[in-house]
Amino acid sequence: MNELIEKDYIFDLQKIKETIKNNQNKAMVIVNSQMIITYYQIGTIINQRKKWGNKYIERLSNDLKEYGKGFSYDQLKRMSQFAFAFTSEEIRAQPVPQIPWGSIITIMQKSKSHEEMLYYINATHKYGWSRSMVLNQIAMKSYERSLIEPNTSRAIKTDDSLNELFKDTYVFDFIDKNNINTEKDLKNYLNI
């Protein structure tokens, strides 16, 4: 009888662990999406007010220190560039909010055109590329090759993008968890 109870318990435990992990993953995607949209909105506000030499972004970064490093001078500049690079329609129509902030920044910095940015954003979402995989694809000129042979893509789908969300320290600043400052803290917190 005890063996049967133990077997049921182990089965239930495994199901519960899978449920927790699946819902944690969904929560991270939702948090990332809201963070990206917030960054876009902040960038839009910055772009309406900043002028060359008025130190607007520098002042903002000082006044937003309490919200974590996600609102540093460099990050606020990136938000401004992000809002400048995309329209709100593109943000809603593209999978931009569904990929990690670090990947978006990498794509923006490395792309030579708007079309190239959209290509890498869509491919990152479709294939689940991590930031290092995006860098690899850019180095291999995946976009340029897609223009030559658009139907012969050999990209492989991975789960790296979701893993990147767990590693993105800006996500933790955004969710305002005082106990979670590093990936190690999160692993301890989630017992991973």
Structure explained in plain terms:
By secondary structure, the protein is mainly alpha-helical. The protein has one domain. Helix content is 72%, strand content 0%. The mean pLDDT is 80.
State the helical fraction. Answer: over 70%
Count of distinct structural domains: 1
Note the beta-strand portion: under 5%
Structure classification: mainly alpha
What does the main sheet amount to? none
Number of continuous helical runs: 11
Q: Would you tell me the overall average pLDDT?
A: 80
Number of E-type strands: 0
**Quaternary structure state of the chains depicted:** single chain
- Sequence of secondary-structure elements: HHHHHHHHHHH
Unreliably modeled segments: none
The backbone outline, from C-alpha atoms, is extended
Distance between the termini: 32 Å
Question: What's the Cα radius of gyration?
Answer: 20 Å
Task: Give a topology summary.
Blueprint lengths: L1 H48 L6 H8 L9 H13 L2 H6 L7 H10 L3 H14 L3 H9 L2 H7 L11 H8 L1 H7 L7 H8 L2
How do you describe this structure in short?
It contains 11 helices and no strands. The protein has 192 residues and is mainly α.
Notable features of this structure?
extended, 192 residues, mainly alpha, 11 helices, single chain
